[in-house]
Every structure is written in structure tokens, then in C-alpha cells.
Design a protein that fits this description.
Elements (H helix, E strand, L loop, with lengths): L9 E8 L7 H17 L5 E5 L6 E6 L4 E5 L5 H13 L3
Parallel strand pairs: 1-2
Antiparallel strand pairs: 1-3, 3-4
Helix pairs in contact: 1-2
């Protein structure tokens, strides 16, 4: 799977990650592997990475009119996380 250009309906992407928890290791790998390419393809979309100890790995997508959706990234590998992000980013409301 490859990084896609986000839909214009996506206004913000937030990622919650813990820098020490083993449950967040795959999410940290995802950020290292894909963040740069995602940002290069989608420079107009804010991508916020929020670090907090012992937080569940999760991605939040904010769309037009304040609509939000979140997905847990617990036990997902980097490719699965990319698929989740691409699915969230391609939604149209």
C-alpha cells in the first residue's frame, strides 16, 4: 500500500502515541517510515502527533463541520496503520 493524497474533506489528522510503551512501538515505526511522505503529499493538512505516557495508540480524523472519527491502532503493524489512515483520509462527508 502507498501513501495517498488526502480528500479535501479532511481538515486535520491527530495521532496519539506513547514514546515508551511497547503497545505503541508499531505506531512509532509507522511515523518514522511514513510521516515524511504523508506530509509531502498533503502539505495543507495539519498532522498533529500528540505524545502522552501510557496512552492508547489512536488516530483521529477531523472533517468539515467538526465531524471527527477515531480508530484504535492497538496491535496494528505499520502497513495496517497506513491503510487505516488512507481510509480515514479518503472519506467524504
Amino acid at each position: 500500500m502507498q501513501v495517498i493524497k488526502f480528500s479535501s474533506h479532511l481538515k486535520e489528522l491527530r495521532i496519539h502515541v506513547c514514546n515508551v510503551s511497547s503497545h505503541n512501538e508499531n505506531l512509532r515505526k509507522f511515523i518514522q517510515k511514513f510521516y515524511k511522505e504523508i506530509k509531502e503529499k498533503n502539505p495543507e493538512v495539519p498532522i498533529l502527533i500528540r505524545e502522552c505516557r501510557q496512552v492508547e495508540p489512536k488516530v483521529w480524523a477531523r472533517y468539515n463541520f467538526g465531524k471527527e472519527e477515531s480508530v484504535s491502532l492497538y496491535e496494528k503493524n505499520p502497513q495496517q496503520i497506513l491503510e487505516i489512515v488512507n481510509n480515514l483520509a479518503s472519506k467524504k462527508f
